[in-house]
Amino acid sequence: MLAFTDTDKYNPHWSPWFILTKACQIKYDYIGYSEDMPNVFNLIKGRVFNDTNIEMPPVYTSHAGVEAVKEVYRTVPTAVLDRVYQKFKDDFRIGNYSRNIDCIR
Q1: CA–CA distance, 45 with 55 (Å, rounded to integer)
Q2: Cβ distance 18 to 90 under 8 Å?
Q3: Is 13 within 8 Å of 75 (Cβ atoms)?
Q4: Is a pLDDT exceeding 70 seen at residue 95?
Q5: What pTM does this model have?
Q6: pLDDT tens-digit profile of 43-91?
Q7: pLDDT of residue 102
Q8: In angstroms, how far is CA 64 from the centroid of its own chain?
């Protein structure tokens, strides 16, 4: 289980972003978040592909998907969510993600 495994034993899909990207060792020009993809796309397009006529496809959103995720998280004990948060604390801080789990309770 993710909460009880050392982060150095995670496969890359579950590795903390902070470790996976080596953020302190590599100087990135851009860091984008999938939650903000339209803005990231427009920023990069404007700076790198300004002379190209490309558009981002429409973003698919599903309220049902958000509710399904909340429903699953409601079954996870708070102590387990707290352990996961501790392992990904740097990712939460860097990504400006909320630790507030009350929204799923």
Answers
A1: 9
A2: yes
A3: no
A4: yes
A5: 0.59
A6: 888 888 878 888 878 777 666 777 787 888 888 888 888 888 888 888 8
A7: 64
A8: 19
**Letter string b/e over residues 57-90, b meaning 16 or more CB atoms within 10 A of that residue's CB:** eeeeeeeeeeeeeeeeeeeeeeeebeeeeebbee
pLDDT mean over 25-44? 82
CA 35 to chain centre: 7
Question: Of the candidates 82, 98, 68, 94, which has an alpha carbon nearest to the alpha carbon of residue 2?
Answer: 82
Q: Which two tokens stand for residue 66?
A: 């958000």
Q: What percent of the chain has pLDDT over 70?
A: 89
Which residues fall within 8 angstroms of residue 85, CB to CB, at 6 or more apart? 92, 99
Residues in the chain: 105
| DSSP state string for 19-74 | HHTTTTTS--S----GGGHHHHHHHHHHHHSTTS---PPPPP--HHHHHHHHHHHT
Task: Extract the tokens encoding 55.
Answer: 């558009």
